[in-house]
Amino acid sequence: MTEELQLSRREREILNILYARGGGTTMEVVGEMADPPTDKAVRRLLHILEEKGHVRRKERGREVVYVPKRSKKAAGTSAFQHVIDTFFGGALDDALAAHFAKKEADVSPEELGRIKRLIDEAREEGR
Question: Which of 32, 40, 55, 108 could form a disulfide with 49 if both were Cys (CB 3.0 to 4.6 A apart)?
């Protein structure tokens, strides 16, 4: 089972907030949650995320700040791969074709050039 599937809805919500903020205290997380539970419940969820290895705590004066252990890029890559595997049978070309098939997905020549450069860079990194 992938790491993303081991998270509850609330745990994913908290991680999304931490990624967006670059970290945060319990009260900062509570302040950004939709329909937040009690402060104590959020503190417990942060502790669970720490036990699962998704976040680490840092001391900031008297406050505890929670920060994601993985980079935003690494988490995004993992989530993207999960979507491709789940909805497109692992076929990146099918996923891209579905995206580009949308009428709103008009891709400019500049964007196509950037996509090609990113693909070339990814190939070079993989070697």
Answer: 55
Task: Give the tens place of pLDDT for each residue, 35-84.
Answer: 999 999 999 999 999 999 999 999 989 999 999 999 888 888 888 888 89
User: Does residue 16 lie in a domain region?
Assistant: yes
Query: Using CA of residue 21, residue 26, residue 28, residue 32, what is the dihedral sign?
Result: positive
Residue 83 maps to a domain: no
For residues 59 and 108, state if they share a domain.
no
Identify which of 79, 98, 103, 101 has the alpha carbon closest to the alpha carbon of residue 88: 98
Contacts of 50 (CB under 8 A, 6+ apart): 56, 57, 66
Residue 120 included in any domain: yes
Rounded to the nearest 10°, the torsion over CA 74, 79, 85, 87 is -150
Give a yes or no: residue 79 inside a domain: no
